[in-house]
Amino acid sequence: MKYYLTTPIYYVNDKPHIGHAYCTIVSDILAQYHRLRGEDVFFLTGIDENSLKNIESAEKLGMGDRIQEYLDMQASIWQETWDSLGITNSDFIRTTESRHKKGVAKFWKRVEQQGDIYKGEYEGFYCIGCEEFIRPTDLVDGLCPIHKREPQKLLERNYFFSAQNYRERLLDHIEKNPDFIQPVSRRNEVINYIRDHFEDISISRQTMKWGIPVPDDPEQVIYVWFDALINYLTGIGYGWDDELFVRYWPADLHLVGKEIIKFHCALWPAMLMSAGIPLPARVFAHGFLTIDGQKMSKSLGNAIDPLEIAKVHGIDALRYFLLREVPFGGDGDFSNERFSQRYESDLSKGVGNFVSRVLAMAEKAESSLLKLDPGLRRDDKESGVQERVRETWQEYEEAFDRTRPDEALEAVWYLISFGDKYIEEKKPWAIHKEDKEEYTRIMDTLLELVRQVSILIYPFMPETALKIWRQLNIEDAQKGLYVAKLKEWRAVPIATIERGEALFPQSK
Ligand code: ME8
Hints:
Layout: E1 2-11, H1 18-36, E2 40-48, H2 52-60, H3 67-84, E3 91-94, H4 98-113, E4 117-127, E5 132-134, E6 152-161, H5 167-176, E7 181-182, H6 185-197, E8 201-202, E9 204-205, E10 213-214, E11 217-222, H7 224-229, H8 231-234, H9 242-248, E12 253-257, H10 261-275, E13 283-286, E14 289-291, H11 306-313, H12 315-325, E15 332-334, H13 336-364, H14 366-371, H15 380-383, H16 385-401, H17 405-426, H18 428-431, H19 436-457, H20 462-471, H21 475-478, H22 483-486
Parallel strand pairs: 1-2, 1-12, 2-3, 7-13, 12-13, 14-15
Antiparallel strand pairs: 4-5, 4-6, 6-8, 9-11, 10-11
Helix pairs in contact: 5-6, 6-10, 11-12, 12-13, 13-17, 13-19, 16-17, 16-19, 17-19, 19-20
This protein binds ligand ME8.
């Protein structure tokens, strides 16, 4: 089984902010989950370099004559950010790379051979902020309503893509594949758009000095979205490594923000249909993050650097927060206050406290735990713990299948509170002296529960999971095992315990 997932490729006119990190982190969590299942995962992210926005930023820095240098500089910033956040992407695609340009040229030719490219006159508006042609009726007081800037007025002879040829096939595909567009709330938006507004689109620019030249017509460069979408193919070998491409295409998931769903669910599948390439299985549109209730923007100067936030409570805490605080698919808000609250209540006092409590009590029983005759083991079915773990796995896997990692995480936290309640009910500390055997049995169950929790949290908080495995001395024993085995009750025996530092120390 392979699993190929992608993030959007980001514009590099600035450094990454928490919104970009959100999409990349969720993708990483999905990638880690599928790896845990033993699947052959390819996780692609990258940058969209042939954009006017980038050129404008280069010019502002006085680097207008050294654009490639500017892009290289920005590429390092983006790559380093993901590295520092521990993102496990398989590759990083840049649209100025020759492998990408080669693939784009190949793709263009296929669409051309299909008879879907023609030359025509484009007269209208173009918003650099959106990198999109804009209808006059969408302007508000002559300005782009999103970017509040005046669009460029264009009169050019361009190449057009016959998108309209694919309108019916697209609608048919969306209807027959209810999972193609997620969440469901976005489906109607896309259907209406395709039905009412999906027209042939200009796919080249005459006056642009930066970009990928149109094959056989170097006077024109390819429209940045047409070029950028193809990254999902060129990132896995299209045009330069057929074997790799066949191994991973079609994509299992394109994760994107809600503002670019139309490009991914209308233009992109139409392009693929024209080129005779199978469509991705699913496009999921996540919501937008605000900061303290406000839109993130350069003018407000409130864009948050994910690296700064990760410094406060660590990377795992940031990953946890973003998944737990924001219902996936909806919008959410980031505030330092909420972040610290969740850190204290869910991490320090939640999983951190649960693990350290169990390990501290288990230490007292350690010597007898090691010698515990399996015949003496608590009947875990009776206690309900084993059953709860089984149900958690079921909810968890189903949630991931629906691309709802937030719900998977919720199920894990429910299991942790179940564990806390189990401790409160059994009050092992009260029987420690008089009934050592019972005490040992309870601890034996609780330790297995901690192991189960550690596997469940792995995709979300890999560093924390690793710390727990070390404390339980099972890191080596679990190596090379995947979910199907790991989730079995007592799949890996816990032999000794080495309590380490608190997983999430209380803030001072
Ligand atoms: O659109 N909250 O790039 P981009 C959550 N290059 N996510 C956010 C966000 C926010 N406030 N702001 C940005 C482009 N994002 C194109 C894509 S793909 C072939 C080309 C995330 O730099 C979100 O995932 O504007 C959004 O879709 C993406 O960044 C857009 O990044």
